[in-house]
Amino acid sequence: MSVPIPMPARGGVARELWRLLEPIHAVVYFAPEPLEEFRAVGYRGFWMGYFAGRAAPLGGAGADVVHALFYNFAYERVSRALPAAWSFAPPDEALQARVRGSVRALSRALGPAADGADVARAAELATRAARSAPLEGRALFAANRSLPVPQEPLARLWQAATLLREHRGDGHVAALLAAGITGRDAHVLHATANGIPRDVYGPARDFDEAEWTSRRETLRHRGLLEDDRLSRRGRELKARIEERTDQLAATAYDALTPGETDELARLLRPLTRAVVRAGDIPLDNPMGLDLRESPGQP
Fold it and tell me: What 3-state DSSP class applies to 189?
């Protein structure tokens, strides 16, 4: 039976594991192999493959549902891809394509380690955490959890990383909503807090100069921005959102003992380093993950 970890420590564990697991999941968005697989089943362009692959666990969902759950995309971007994507290939084919492509990308990045015992053990621990995480209020996580567990260890690790990131993401959306921060405002808040260039969010989230300026003015009127940085109030709000996100994400790891969470982190570090070194994931990215901080380092 696992021993409860104090809440602040649990949040720290959840954040460390997110930093280690997110690159493993994110190959599905940035590596060439998933894009090839999405094109092979018929999807046209990056964004149709993106929305089809990530939304496929929901079944043939349309733009309204996906826009609501993904939270931070422009509605026009979502509606250009869905539900049209399902006329090119159904959700089941998108699910198979995303796993095939992600496993290919991870195999390339990891080399011989892809078939090693560390991957199998990491997959076992991460899957146990992911399958035990609470479902309530986490629709995107629940949709992914309903999928069969792959037999191949590397596919199982990728799926577990996906489950845990969507579980965290659902909690993050709840924390943002509770703080009165919309999905679009969240990008501006995060970019300002971390010095991420606006240009990152142009192609990735369809921001133009006018919308970015408008969102900044909204945050400024709330007293969250001053000049080109967060105000004290803004920093405090951002810290609360991140802390609450970590706390909500930590519930996924209650099924593991402290020793097992330490083991999972230890096993993941060299794997994550290899994925980051492969260079597919940009250092400046819209995921909120700063790869310049070397998430795979001890």
Answer: helix
**Nearest one of 114, 204, 128 to 159, comparing CA atoms:** 128
What pLDDT is recorded for position 287? 73
Amino acid letter, 237: L
CB 14 within 8 A of CB 75: no
Question: Is the dihedral angle over the CA atoms 254, 256, 260, 261 positive or is it negative?
Answer: negative
Q: How many CB atoms lie within 10 A of CB 1?
A: 4
pLDDT, tens only, 144-171 = 999 999 999 999 999 999 999 999 999 9
What is residue 274's predicted lDDT score, i.e. its pLDDT? 97
CA distance 79 to 62: 8
Q: Average pLDDT, stretch 57-83?
A: 97
Cβ-proximal residues to 121 (8 Å cutoff; 6+ apart), any chain: 263, 267
d(CA 184, CA 207): 9
> What crossing angle do the helices spanning 7-30 and 258-277 adopt, rounded to 10°?
30
